[in-house]
Amino acid sequence: RVKEHGRNSVRQFIPEMGVTAISRLNMEGALRRGLDRGEFVLHYQAKIDLRSHKIIGAEALVRWQHPQIGLIHPIEFIPLAEETGLILPLGEWVLAEACRQQIAWQKLGLPALKLAINMSSRQFRQEDLSERVAAIFSATGAQPAHFILELTESMVMQDVESTLVTLRALKNLGVALSLDDFGTGYSSLSYLRKFPIDELKIDKSFINDIHENPDDAAIASAIVAMALSLGLQVVAEGVETKEQVELLLGMQCHQVQGYYFGRPMDANSFANRVQSSLAGERDE
Ligand code: C2E
Ligand code: MG
Ligand code: MG
Ligand code: MG
């Protein structure tokens, strides 16, 4: 189940782009220019609390709005951005943009939504990560308490001593920390206790067949129980059906994300969605 974020994705990129002769070098140049030209956008996917049926937050997911090719998904460019180091300026742009968006939404009168931001392993390994993150919060005026940084198990398990230092520094800023794609990596469970983590996100590969695969259901249920007894928030990713929702409710997993509740969408569509769900509540 470990995700393949390998070199193959560069090759996959070619047919999907409908371009036959784009070399890795061209792709790298295109990414660099895309950053300079402001071709990246964030889409937002709702995070729902099943008890209140409210949108309690959103995950920011980066897309590349390429002028010729159209919208390119992160699987197509994050691996190369990571390899080339372009993920560092891209990652800073993502956080800054999410901060600007959060402030814009507050000005519009939207309720305070927690925004989740994905971090890459290269970003996470920067010596001065917490200073860089703090600088973005102070430059944009956003409040760290409105943000969750999503990390993966493989990232935090790489060098647990330095991980602990980084996690503590980030927590001191006031952001929440989440372990994304939980269950697909190799975390030593004892670190869940040592690391100042706030949330686990159960990987969607366990949720997909939860209604017909008892092993997947057992794993999901065990992750929920463990999270709750450690005092962590727990979120199920990739929820697509009502059956999945009902099983998750039975497991006491109350926070969900998935196509059943909404796909990732551009900022304006997301704001409309939040506003109409608030209007719906008033009408009830
Ligand atoms: P992730 O953080 O695990 O994000 C969840 C992915 O699952 C998103 O794909 C989302 O669109 C998709 N998804 C959500 N609900 C469902 C569902 O019900 N069914 C299915 N099949 N999929 C669902 P997306 O946006 O293509 O992002 C893929 C991955 O790219 C993310 O996985 C994350 O690892 C990475 N990524 C996205 N944005 C960023 C970013 O700003 N920085 C970094 N470093 N990585 C990012
Ligand atoms: Mg994520
Ligand atoms: Mg995930
Ligand atoms: Mg993922």
Structure overview:
With 284 residues, the chain is α/β, with parallel strands linked by helices. 48% of the residues lie in helices and 20% in strands. It has an 8-stranded mixed beta barrel with strand order 1-2-4-5-6-7-8-9, surrounded by 4 helices. A hairpin with a 4-residue loop joins strand 1 (40-49) and strand 2 (54-66). Helix 4 (87-107) packs parallel to helix 6 and helix 6 runs parallel beside helix 8. The protein is globular, with a radius of gyration of 19 Å. The chain starts with 7 loop residues before the first helix and ends with a helix. The model is unreliable at 1-16 (pLDDT under 50). It binds ligand C2E and magnesium ion (3 copies).
Question: Helix- and strand-based class?
Answer: alpha/beta
The count of helical stretches stands at 13
Shape: globular
Quantity of strands, as a count: 10
Q: What are the secondary-structure elements, in order, as H or E? A: HHEEEHHEHHEHHEHEHHEHEEH
Strand order of the largest sheet: 1-2-4-5-6-7-8-9
- Work out the helicity level: 40-55%
